[in-house]
Amino acid sequence: MKIIYIDLDGVVADFEKGRQKHSLSNITPYKGRPDKLPGIYENLEPIPGAIDAVNKLLEDQVFDVYFLSTAPWDNPEGWMHKRLWVAKFFDEKLIRKRLILSHHKHLLIGDYLIDDRRFNGASEFKGEWLHFGSERFPDWKSVLNYLKYKK
Ligand SMILES: [Mg+2]
Fold first, then answer.
1. Domain housing 65
2. Distance CA 28, CA 90 (A)
3. Which of 14, 15, 107, 121 could crosslink 9 through cysteines, CB 3.0-4.6 Å?
4. Is 7 a known active-site residue?
5. Measured in angstroms, how far is the CA atom of residue 116 from the centroid of ligand 1?
6. Which pTM value belongs to this model?
7. 95 near 88, Cβ under 8 Å?
8. In total, how many domains does the chain have?
9. Residue 60: which CATH number?
């Protein structure tokens, strides 16, 4: 089985939209540090096409799928909200105990990491980093096409 790690914010959850809608986003100390915004991770909307695409991967026997998201250090409530968020949008049977929160994504062993940013170890990931939102992987359709070809 090929191991796939999927980032949450900017890949599955629409963090940028949530940031823009948050009433404190332009106020110190949250301006420039949206990861600190109270409750920011709780009610994010999914990225278009993300839920269907991730379900396809979760249901595919060829892939072993985990969410791999950063653990917002200054916003521990966010850890809980990330756990609740995946349970809200995915079938418990498919995602139970498959959420990893880490600032050191390069320490995880696997084949693919789907992530929109190079930070927190993403660009040093030992497998293949699929840079979500880049020209090569602008959306979920392009990611699925690529993985289908690789398996
Ligand atoms: Mg991200």
1. 2-16+45-150
2. 34
3. 15
4. yes
5. 5
6. 0.96
7. no
8. 1
9. 3.40.50.1000
